[in-house]
Design goal:
four-stranded antiparallel sheet; globular; mainly beta; about 45% strand; 2 helices
């Protein structure tokens, strides 16, 4: 009898551990990763080739694309579309979001405060963390979530910090261990239900600092740059910067000043302006028109594509295309090649170091450039297709 009881207890323990998913656990392994590096014909050649199709909202990690799947995430092999692994958490509260932490890891977040770091290549859980509830009461939190789902925002701040905005607070976790680095509390995230206090208009990581745009509903937006490590205030600014600014690395950030028609590059640590560059004819301050590599900042404008040296703002090259003025679009670059749109349906591949045109490809529908990882780029075609190209 006692042996049967021991076996029952052991089985119960195994089932419990499977439910909580301890570090090192393998997540729903399916087909597994390819046995050899994925090198389809066309990869690494000057011509533009379509290599695979992936889902909306996915991101590329070497040979797989990670996507949301039900109440969790999945890694899908680019070579054949088969699942490498699938992670579902059916017993949890609502799935919130997932984000890329680095080239090997993602963080997945649920509304009950569970955060999970996953090694994409191996399909193993690295750590779990549980976020405490914020200062918002349950009613205002649910109302806010229904009307403004972006109340939950997940992003990565450097060095090695995972930043999660929720329930009137922002928790910063160490990406290596999941331990809390600091917590930023706000009076409220909204004015829902007559609540007063601070309204967070945007929050964005910029390497060593976190930018927070804030202001009460009727007031002008102001901002503060906080240390990504411990949350201390570094500097303040007027107006919103979070959605018009990109991290350049090397302790620098760049803003598109739409009113002034120029690029402004600042030192992230103190906000000091390092250099400016005039942008003629630009009618947008969307930061996606900026492509960032190790040493060049590439900008798409109506008249031409311009690459600036990040260190001093000098022009490395300019490339213009024949025809009428273009609508600036996203710029994708890895420092070796750069992708831009020639027009709404034409993709152009440039040498990122010289601006020389390597290839052009015309598509049947309008294209939008989404993201570039290593030598692979993701491009949306029309409303329903998302292509991996090289």
């Amino acid at each position: 009898m006692w042996r049967i009881r021991l076996k029952a207890i052991a089985l119960a323990c195994v089932a419990l551990l499977a439910m909580v998913a301890w570090p090192g656990e393998i997540i729903g392994r399916a087909a597994g990763p390819p046995g050899e590096p994925w090198q389809p014909p066309g990869r690494g050649t000057p011509p533009i080739d379509v290599l695979a199709e992936v889902s909306y909202g996915s991101d590329l990690f070497g040979d797989v694309a990670v996507e949301q799947r039900g109440s969790g995430v999945a890694a899908v092999r680019l070579a054949d579309g088969a699942d490498s692994w699938v992670y579902q958490r059916f017993w949890a509260d609502d799935f919130v979001d997932w984000t890329r932490v680095d080239d090997r890891h993602i963080a997945v977040v649920w509304r009950d405060g569970r955060v999970t770091l996953i090694n994409v290549a191996t399909g193993r859980i690295v750590w779990h963390a549980d976020l405490p509830a914020g200062p918002e009461d349950e009613f205002s939190r649910r109302v806010f979530d229904e009307e403004w789902p972006a109340m939950w925002e997940v992003s990565v701040a450097g060095p090695g910090s995972l930043m999660i905005q929720h329930d009137g607070r922002t928790d910063v976790l160490d990406t290596r261990t999941g331990a809390a680095r600091c917590t930023l509390l706000f009076a409220t995230c909204s004015t829902v239900g007559g609540l007063g206090g601070l309204s967070i208009r945007g929050i964005q990581s910029m390497g060593e600092v976190v930018l927070i745009d804030h202001g009460r509903e009727a007031d002008a937006i102001e901002g503060v740059a906080l240390d990504a490590e411990d949350g201390t205030q570094r500097w303040t600014y007027a107006g919103g910067l979070t959605y018009i600014t990109r991290d350049l690395g090397q302790g620098r950030m760049v803003t598109i000043d739409h009113a002034g028609g120029e690029l402004i590059v600042r030192k992230a640590a103190d906000g000091k302006i390092l250099w400016r560059a005039e942008l003629k004819g630009l009618d947008t301050n969307d930061a996606t028109i900026l492509g960032v590599s190790d040493d060049l900042l590439t900008v798409d404008t109506p008249a031409e594509v311009i690459a600036y040296r990040i260190v001093d703002g000098g022009v490395a090259w300019r490339t213009s295309f024949e025809g009428a003025s273009r609508r600036p679009g996203s710029v994708l670059t890895n420092g070796q090649v750069t992708y831009v749109r020639g027009d709404e349906r034409t993709l152009i591949k440039l040498d990122a170091r010289t601006g020389d045109v390597l290839d052009r490809r015309r598509f049947a529908e309008e294209i939008e450039l989404e993201v570039m990882r290593d030598d692979l780029a993701k491009v949306s075609l029309g409303l329903d297709h998302h292509l991996v190209i090289a």
